[in-house]
Amino acid sequence: MSRAEGMKLITIVGARPQFIKAAAVMRATQEFNKKEKRIREILVHTGQHYDYLMDKVFFEELDLPKPDYHLGVGSGSHARQTGMMLERIEAVLQKEKPHVVMVYGDTNSTLAGALATAKLNIPVAHVEAGLRSYNRNMPEEMNRLLTDHLSSLLFCPTDQSIRNLLKEGIKDREGVIVKKVGDVMYDSILYYSKIAEKKSTILRDLNLVNLQSAICNPQYYLATLHRAENTDNLNRLQSILKALDKIGRNTPVLLPIHPRTRKVMKGYGLLSKFKDIKLIEPISYLDMLKLEKNAKAILTDSGGIQKEAYWFGVPCFTLREETEWVETIKQGWNKLVGSEEKRIVEAVSQFTGKCLPGKRPGVFGDGKAGREIVRILKKRFG
User: Fold this and answer.
1) Active-site hit among 49, 126, 226, 258
2) What is the pLDDT of residues 11-23, one digit of tens each?
3) Is there a single domain that holds both residue 122 and residue 216?
4) What's the CATH number where 55 sits?
5) How far apart are alpha carbons 171 and 246 in whole angstroms?
6) Would 205 be classed as within a structural domain?
7) What is the crossing angle of helices 184-199 and 369-381, to 10°?
8) pTM of the entire structure?
9) Lowest-confidence pick of 115-124, 233-242, 329-338
């Protein structure tokens, strides 16, 4: 496909958050193509997430097209997973010869896609560029750093992400585009939360209807736990679970259990040990939005859920010592509580239970990040 005929874009995804982010940009691409069909988008799924509740159901709910390529990589060590992705992505790129390749976030799929692309001298576009936790023990941090330094187009969600890149000498210059476009997950939450209100039956399914309140007094906590720093450290994992169990004695605590967390808990005989945590299977995106919106508060080690809590006006306690999303901390909607049982329980006990007042400042853009990304790509690649 020559530039005269339009732009060929390859999008690489592999994990649940990337499906959500890609959906926002794909909607914008489809809007553009209705007016002028000049973008051909090819979807490559690495297979990093591969079970139904972490993969297929998201494609169905988000109305994403079936991937043009499914690489079937599956689970494995970081080296094995990334290596397999590199080899298989390279073969796709050599066959398709795209003008640009889009990667999202900070997973192994992100790094493998960026590395394979850059080595073939094809421009890399990184959505969610510039995020930093400054904790290099996190695999995600290394993925972010390397991907940003490999990228030609860096689409940043916030002013802080721009500043982070400037510290590393990455700036808007000839051959490199660095732009604040807003957060594509904000695009998605605005679009899909309306659908969730109509379609999700999760509150009824979990017998939580009576715990939902229209007067801003919800009566359950929502927790998520999946990062390796918490799940692969038995002391940290047990401490967090003890805290959730103690909190759950007074108010229900729901924990949709990530496959990694389930595997570790099962290995250590922890699945039935904590009686006051309500463990449920992984849930779909629409169900998660419904649970988040109606929760008393959220306890999580997820980056995306910190932002979703902020956008819904639900207090968030982050089970880490740092966060990429410092904006949520600065605005007072998020609190870092780490993994220590006593610290977590005290933070939650001091929480008044009242909804946070006022409108959240628009530090994450206006919900049109996808459109801005497509506009920039179109201008650069025709």
Assistant:
1) 226
2) 999 988 899 999 9
3) no
4) 3.40.50.2000
5) 47
6) yes
7) 130
8) 0.91
9) 329-338
